[in-house]
Amino acid sequence: MIEMQGGEDLRYTNQLPDYALRFHRGLITVFGIISLGLLWLVLYFLIFDFFPVMAGFIFFVFAIMAFLTRFSYNNLKQYTNLNIIKHLNHEGYYFYYKNSKTKEEIEELITYNQMDQVIIGHTLRYIPNTSNAIRSPRIIGARIIIVWDNGGEMDFRIFDIEVQDQLDGWIDRMRFHDIPIYMTEKDVGSVPGEEYINKFLGEGRDLEELTTRFSVGGRTTKKLEKY
């Protein structure tokens, strides 16, 4: 999963800072050099010194280093191949996506005039805890669901957030532009996209107007009621 960076002025991107890119590239280079050196030692002990036990041990270490090199390279490519920007600016919700590998590019601006309403519900992000898997903590976040008029049909855009002051900023900006905001304390994270119209816009929807602060960022070992 790609992590979004930033949050200043409600702007988010998957692009890593320059220092992080340099660190990742340096790490990959170091891992690669060590892997090549280990491979040379494996060949040396097999061909010139015929010491298969030592060669086997070094090959095992080489396999680990090669795996780390490949893993680090693939992880970096997730950020360099994709350019994603999400920004709730003063015109509306801006979304940009570019995949340099497939050449796919999407740019979209949902203006405040197009927005029908915003729905906010809770999400839970699981944090692995090897010491006690049953009571592993979960971070309580929020899913912001923007309901907008897409050529005469209701469409949805979502954004997940776990930082309280950033969520407050989203709500304040929506209210400034007179966008109706509704909420539920239930977990909406598992609602499939194809069910959004029935679940959130249908007659039986279980939502209320947001009148108090919607809290996120806390931790719990309990599951929330599903929406």
Give the strand content: 25-35%
Counting DSSP H or I runs of 4 or more residues, the number of helices is 4
- Topology as H/E string? EEHHEEEEEEHEHEE
Q: What number of structural domains do the residues give?
A: 2
Cα(first) to Cα(last) distance is 24 Å
Record the SSE blueprint.
Elements: E1 5-6, E2 11-13, H1 18-47, H2 52-80, E3 82-88, E4 92-99, E5 104-111, E6 115-126, E7 138-150, E8 153-161, H3 164-176, E9 181-187, H4 196-201, E10 208-209, E11 219-220
Parallel strand pairs: 6-9
Antiparallel strand pairs: 1-2, 2-3, 3-4, 4-5, 6-7, 7-8, 7-11, 9-10
Word description of this protein:
The chain contains four helices and eleven strands. It is an alpha+beta fold. It folds into two domains: 70 residues; 109 residues, no CATH class. The strands form two sheets. Strands 6, 7, 8, 9, 10 and 11 form a six-stranded mixed β-sheet that branches. Helix 1 packs antiparallel against helix 2. It is elongated. The two termini are 24 Å apart.
Quick structural gist:
The protein has 227 residues and is α+β, with helices and mostly antiparallel strands. The protein folds into two domains: 70 residues; 109 residues, no CATH class.
Task: Output the keywords.
6-stranded mixed β-sheet, alpha+beta, elongated, 227 residues, 5-stranded antiparallel β-sheet, 11 strands
